[in-house]
Amino acid sequence: MRQFHYPIWLGAVTTTSTPSFVVLFVLETFTRAILVTVVPLQALALLGDAQGVSIFYFAVSTVGLVGALAVPWLVRRLRRRWVLSLAVVYLCASAPLLASHSLAGLTAGMGLHMIGAATLSICLNLYVLDHVRPKVLTRFEPLRMLFTGTAWTIAPVMGVYLGKYGAPWLPYGVSAGFALALLGYFWFLRMTENPTLAPNPMSMATALPATNPLRFLRRYFAQPRLFLAFVLAVGRAGWWMMFFIYAPIYAVSSGMTAETGGWIVAAGSASMFAVTFWGWVGRRYGLRRLLIGGYLAAGLLTAGVGAAGGTPGLAIAILIIACIAASAIDGAGNVPFLRAVRVRERPEMTTVYSAYRDTARLTIPGLFALVLNVFALPAVFVTSGLIMLVMATYARHIPRRL
Predict the structure, then answer these.
(1) 238 dihedral zone (left: phi>0; alpha: psi -120 to 50; beta)
(2) pLDDT digits over 346-365, tens only?
(3) Pick from 203, 155, 149: which is nearest to 177 by CA?
(4) Which of 270, 320, 340, 382 lies at 20 to 30 Å from 2 by C-alpha?
(5) Is residue 3 within 8 Å of residue 16, measured between CB atoms?
(6) Residue, of 131 and 264, whose pLDDT is higher
(7) Cα(first)–Cα(last) distance of the chain, in Å?
């Protein structure tokens, strides 16, 4: 069945095979990753301390979570391509607000950015479910992480340098530029969607109840495998959120430069290049063992960062090693969901699952705000390590056949 209209010379990147999706995910990653160091440092400059930054992320993540839960309503009433386009509009509209370098602009801009990023991620994952065969998913996820790892390695440093040596607004403008490039490539592909999931005006009245957020939330969490996939994804996303926000803050608070904070984030993100190796480990020894080991190692090492907090060089070295352990989780972390979700429930269930990022952004900063009200910054790493150890115990419930 034909899925794309394309010139023959474009080859693999214009077919339903994985290269086209890899390109889309790389562009989507650049849109987010270029701001991953810039925004926490800007928030630190405006708010003054790590606790204030935690409260800020807790507030804006609430907006992002509500926006993400509205995506099924849009997908059922609009073609998915228009929902994806709307997500890019949100991302571009956030850029001038973030570039204002005011607390009000930062708050409104991050709220829009989170809604746009969540909507974009949901739509891209739905297209993956439509076009990538289930048996290929276990190979697609490590490949996607390998290539997006390039963006996570380059973009955090790029954002800091663009803001410092270019212009303060430049990181946000470049982020919007990548979003527009993604939209242009997406429309060039003229990607189709599963016709069984497309909106049907004649059946809109009967489809309406399925978009009630309370109904599909209950349906999602009533399925044990989907519930497990969500909990593990929240733990994984929460760890990386801790790293992206608090690693540069820890560096700057320890007397290092903002550029050093960017390089620390880039070094940790480079661990994603190990996903090919972790993919082999998962196929050789099983996904369950891989995820248990990844959560366990990341948890122990991250707790060690807190113990070495008084020695910044040692703490950062341990944290980067912890990133390598966390990359084992990332390479196959979405597979439990992708293998468990039912075809007819993909829009609603994918929306709930994709909200794991927003859930992590909401719960983790809120928890850290409480921790920082009592303890110093290294306690953040100890707390994060303990959370990962809890995730290791939950990973024991992953079916052995995966």
Answers:
(1) alpha
(2) 767 877 887 788 788 888 88
(3) 155
(4) 340
(5) yes
(6) 264
(7) 29
Residue appearing with tokens 């607004």: 169
- Residues 6 or more apart whose CB falls under 8 angstroms from that of 163 comprise 38, 170, 171
Residue 206 confidence class, pLDDT cut points 50, 70, 90: very low
Which amino acid belongs to residue 23? Answer: V
Q: Tokens 């630190």 correspond to what residue?
A: 44
Burial of 12 (0-12, 13-18, 19+ CB in 10 A): exposed
The CA-based diameter of the chain, rounded to the nearest angstrom, is: 65
**Cα gap 225→335, rounded to integer Å:** 11
HEC string of the chain equals CCCCCCCHHHHHHHCCCHHHHHHHHHHHHHHHHCCCCHHHHHHHHHHCCHHHHHHHHHHHHHHHHHHHHCHHHHHHHCCHHHHHHHHHHHHHHHHHHHCCCCHHHHHHHHHHHHHHHHHHHHHHHHHHHHHCCHHHHHHHHHHHHHHHHHHHHHHHHHHHHHHHHHCCCHHHHHHHHHHHHHHHHHHHHCCCCCHHHCCCHHHHHHHHHHHCHHHHHHHHHCCHHHHHHHHHHHHHHHHHHHHHHHHHHHHHHCCCCHHHHHHHHHHHHHHHHHHHHHHHHHHHHCHHHHHHHHHHHHHHHHHHHHHCCCCHHHHHHHHHHHHHHHHHHHHHCCHHHHHHCCHHHHHHHHHHHHCHHHHHHHHHHHHHHHHHCCCCCHHHHHHHHHHHHHHHHHHCCCCCCC
| Token duo for residue 11 | 């080859």
Half-sphere exposure of 312 (CA within 13 A, CB side): 15
Give mean pLDDT, residues 24-35: 92
Which pLDDT score, from 0 to 100, does residue 346 have?
74
CA distances from residue 247 to 41, 172, 176, 258 in whole angstroms, order as listed: 10, 21, 25, 11
